[in-house]
Structure formats: C-alpha cells, structure tokens
Amino acid sequence: MTEKASKPLKIDRLMPEIPHGLIVVITGNGKGKTSSALGMTLRACGHGLRTCIIQFMKGDLYAGEWDGVKQLKGVELISTGKGFCGIKGNPYPFEEHRANAQEAIRLVKEKIASGKFDILIMDEINNALHLKLVDLEQVLEVLQGKPPLMHLILTGRDAHPQVIELADTVSEVREIKHAFRKDIEPQPGIDY
To answer: What are phi and psi of 119, to 5 degrees?
Structure first.
C-alpha cells in the first residue's frame, strides 16, 4: 500500500478591494469584551497593523494584558482609569474617575491625530459613557471624525444606542454562566 503524497496547502492573503476603517462595538453583560478586542490586537499584529489601546476604567488592579502586549510589536497600551466607578470597594470619588476618563478622551484624540495607528481600542468607554464619565457628544465627535482607514473598537457594557447606530459591526456578549456566581474568585490570565 502506498501513501498518496498530499500537496502543501497554499495560504492566500485576502485583501479588500476597497479598504474601509470600521467602527466595532463589543458590548453586553457577558465576559470577554476586552478579551475579544485583545484578540483583534493579536490578529492585527499578524498583518503588521499598529494598535493603540486606551483603557478608560481599568488601572487600580493589575491586568495581564499590561505586560502581555509588551511582547507584541506595534502595540501601545495606556491605562488611564482608577478602577470601576461605583463598584464596591473602589475608594475614588466620581470627580477623579471623570477627570481620568476626560484624560483618556484627550489621549484618544491625540493618538488619532498622530497618524501612527491603524486601530484604536477604547476599552470600557461604553461603561464610562453610561456612568457619565465622558459625554455622548465627545464620543460621537471621535467616531464621526475618525480617519477613513482607521478602525475604532469600543468595549464595555451598556453601549449607547447612538454609538450602536454609528457602528459598522456590533457584537453583544451575553452571560450564560459565570464562575463568579459560584463564588469562584477571578483567575489570572482568564479574568484579568
């Protein structure tokens, strides 16, 4: 019996005929919104795209992505937050959370204007908007003024209907089951 020699698989690279910068919203009450955006960051690295991630609310507890992205070429991550505003145990007043979110909006505009990035991720901006740490007009201005080929990714629960309307792609992450509900503590590499 002889083995049939198989041809090596040819891998093609798909290139759009008309490149278009997308607005992507990842929202919902389930786990995995930031993880999805970070997955897109990894994929973008494979295509040589440069990504900036600005975290609006994370910052008071270590997150693995802070050191993980340092191993990726062309990725910058800036965490501007002081944790989740209004969550038990967060000691910072609303005014400090708002000031940090306002700094994040300023950084978003600066990074867009720099022309250095192909993708800009605004992590937890939907929450920041819902909590009034940033204003709807500020977010709409960023979305409407983005460069034509730049991709913007917005994460966080409670996405505003007008943000959803402007988006090209919207995904909702729905919780079916979560370990937290079984009193299992958050686990490194999975939850943060």
So the answer is: -130, 135
pLDDT at 1 > cutoff 60: no
* Cβ pair 52, 121 in contact under 8 A: yes
Considering the entire predicted model, what is its pTM? 0.90
Over residues 6-10, mean pLDDT: 86
Helix or strand holding residue 96 (H, E): helix 94-114
Backbone angles phi, psi at 38, to 5 degrees: -70, -30
Q: What percent of the chain has pLDDT over 70?
A: 97
Cα dist from 36 to 4, 94, 166, whole Å: 40, 28, 20
Tell me the C-alpha to C-alpha distance, in Å, between residue 72 and each of 42, 51, 103.
Answer: 8, 10, 25
Kind plus residue range of the DSSP H or E element containing 112: helix 94-114
Strand order from edge to edge, sheet including 23-27: 75-79, 51-55, 119-123, 151-155, 23-27, 169-172
| CB contact burial 99-136 (16+ within 10 A = b; e otherwise) | ebbbebbebbeebbeeeebbbbbbbbbbbbbbbebbee
Both tokens of residue 176? Answer: 């079916």
CA pair distance 150, 44, nearest whole angstrom? 12
